Amino acid sequence: MCSRFELNANSRQVTARFNLLAPPGMPNRAETRPTDSALVIGVGGASLARWGLAVEWDSRPLINARSETLASRPTFRRLLGCRVLIPASAWWEWRAEGTRRIKTKLAPAKSGLFAFAGLLDGECFTMITCAAPTELAEVHERMPVILPPEAEAAWVDPAVPYAEMAPLLRPMAGPFTIEAEAPPSPVQGSLF
DNA sequence: CCAGACGTTGTT
DNA sequence: GTCTGG
DNA sequence: CCAGACGTTGTT
DNA sequence: GTCTGG
After folding, report:
1. pTM of structure
2. Could you say which enzyme class this protein belongs to (predicted)?
3. How far, in Å, is the CA of A81 from the C1' of nucleotide E5?
């Protein structure tokens, strides 16, 4: 599921939206993929972290954590107090249509920045997922957890027990904008 | 980052 | 070799 | 002891 | 590498 997202904003906009004390250094690109650096906001403010936890049994980064089970997974359990916000403006899923996969850009219809729920492990982070609501299920059955803005401060506060935060890990209410992106064009068209 | 696809016709 | 998706 | 999981997503 | 189940 979510293996790509966007933060289409500048440092000043992020500072204002998340009440930061100082403008953060921003990622090089708006579009973030696994292992890329992304902006994360924790109890100590904003910083850059790599997307995906390193695990011993797979060379690929562990980019998602299921909300339904993360409290019982040893890999994530130790991180339940290292909660971070991941500022974003949209994310992508791939809708299966026969054998084709249609890249689809998703965002809350109410425009503006929002925050995914993440867990930080040193310099790497993972993104928490939940079931997708009906409106999005036809695109993809899962989605990243988007926190209600009023819960963002508590989410990053390690003094707040995880048990109080767990109820937040559920599908965001819509509506959403859903934009299918143009299928990739051939690198070289036919000559005639 | 890395594994897997990358295409179609016609049909095992 | 390059692109795509997880 | 030792094979298999360990985590996700999507699904042969 | 470490943990778990048979």
Report:
1. 0.91
2. hydrolase
3. 30
